[in-house]
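Why run this: before we spend reagent on co-expression, it is cheaper to look at a predicted model of the complex and decide which construct boundaries make sense. The entries below are exactly what would go into the expression plan.
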Amino acid sequence: MTKDDAVTDWKAIRRDVLANIQSGQWQPGSKIPREIELAERYGSTRSTVGRALRDLADAGFLDRKRKGGTTVAANPMRKAPLDVPILRDAITKAGHRPGYRLLHAKLQCAPADISAALAQPPGVKLLYIRALYFADDRPHQLELRWLVPEMIRGLGPDHWATSPVDEWLLCNAPLTRAQIEIESIALSDALARLFEQPSGSPSLLITRVSWKDAAPLGVLRLYHAPGHRLRTAI
Amino acid sequence: MTKDDAVTDWKAIRRDVLANIQSGQWQPGSKIPREIELAERYGSTRSTVGRALRDLADAGFLDRKRKGGTTVAANPMRKAPLDVPILRDAITKAGHRPGYRLLHAKLQCAPADISAALAQPPGVKLLYIRALYFADDRPHQLELRWLVPEMIRGLGPDHWATSPVDEWLLCNAPLTRAQIEIESIALSDALARLFEQPSGSPSLLITRVSWKDAAPLGVLRLYHAPGHRLRTAI
DNA sequence: CAGTGGTCTAGACCACTAG
DNA sequence: TAGTGGTCTAGACCACTGA
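The model came back. C-alpha cells follow.
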C-alpha cells in the first residue's frame, strides 16, 4: 500500500492517507511527508494531494502548519454533526404526522436570564411565544421563544397563529450565529401536564441563543417529550 | 455589493454569496448564477468560485447538482459540531482536576440489546468495563463499555486499572464509524448513589455504538452528572 | 531566511442529469 | 444530448513560521 502506480484522485489519496493513520503506521503526533513528496509518490500533483490533506485536516485527523508541515492529530476529536432542523420538517421526516398548536404569544417583559443572554436591558419587552408540536397527535416538543422585536419587523399574529414561527424566521431573519446547550431536566408539573407524563419525568432541553451578525435575535428553549432521542453519526 | 472590481479570493466570494443568501436577495429554492458567470462577475476563475460554492454547499447553504445548477438550500439545516472528546482531556480543558476510578472490568455475557446492537450472537462474552470519571473529586461521568474481545487484543488489566480505556483505544483500535444517541433519563437508585444525587435525578445519557470499518467494536454508555450541559455553537 | 502549506490561474476532460 | 458542476494539471506567487 501507499505505493506508486498513479493513484490520482483525491478521494483515493484521502483514503490511503487515512488508512495509514488508522492502521497506526503514521502515529499520532508524528510528521507525515510533505505535499510534494506525496504527490510524487502517488503520481499526482500538489493541488490534488493538498485537496485530500485539507479534507482530512478539516475532519480533524491532521494538523497543518506552514513551514511546520503536516502532523497526525494527537487527539482526533471527531466532530459529530448535530443538525438544527425546522421542527415541523423533522417530524415529517421521522415518518409522523406533524401538528402545531400555539399556546401563547405576547409582547412582555422577559425573565432576567433571558434578557441577559441577549444582552438586553433587564425588563425589556420581548415577543414571547409558547407553542406545542405534535407527532401523530401526541405532544412531541414544547417551544418557548423570546424574540427581539426590532429584529422581526413584519412578523405578525397571522403568521404565528397558524404556522410555526420557525418557518417565517428562516426566510426573513435567518440567524448567522448561535450558541446551543443540551441538558437533561425534570419536567415541572405544568410542563409534564402538557406532555401527558408524570411530573418530574426526564426531558431533553435544548437552549439556543441566536444572533444575526452582531445583533441578538432571540432565545429558543425546546423541551422534548420524555423518551425522545437525538441521533447522529460519524 | 456583488459588483465587479476583482474580488479574487475565495473567502471574499464566499462571504459575498452568503450575504446574498442571508439578506434574502437570493431566495431559498431559487437558482443562483453558474460558476462561469460568477467568475466573470467577480473577475476570478471558475476554480476559485467553485471553491467558495463548494464550501457553502458543505455548510448546507447551497445545493449543487450537475446540469441542475446551484440553488439556495430550501432548508438550511445548520450543522452544529458536537465533539467526541477524550474524557479525561475534556475535564482538564474545562478547568477541572480529572480523576478516574475503575469500578468493574470482566469478560461476561452481554445484555441482549447490547449484543444485538453489535450484531453479535446473543449471550456472547464481551469485555464489560464500568468506570467513574471525576472533576475536582466530584463524580462527573459514569462510563459503561462493552468491547468485542477480538477487536482489542493487547488490552489488558494493567491498562484499564490505572488509565481510561479511551486512551488505549484511540491509539490501538480507533473507530472509523459510530452511531450516537443522546437522551434524557432518570437515574436509577444505584446510579444516583454513584453521583451522590437523589434517585430519579435527570441525567444526560450518550450511547455510542462504534465500528472499525465493517467490524463492530463496542458500545459506550456515558451517564452525565445531573446538571451537566453539552455545549456547541454554529 | 528558507521551507512549508495556502491560494490563484488557465486550461482541459469527465460524470452526471435535466429537458 | 447538451449543459452543469467535479476534478485534475502545471505552474506561479504569497503568507506564515520554525530554525
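Chain B has eight helices and eleven strands. The first helix of chain B runs from residue 10 to 22. Bring this page to Monday's planning discussion.
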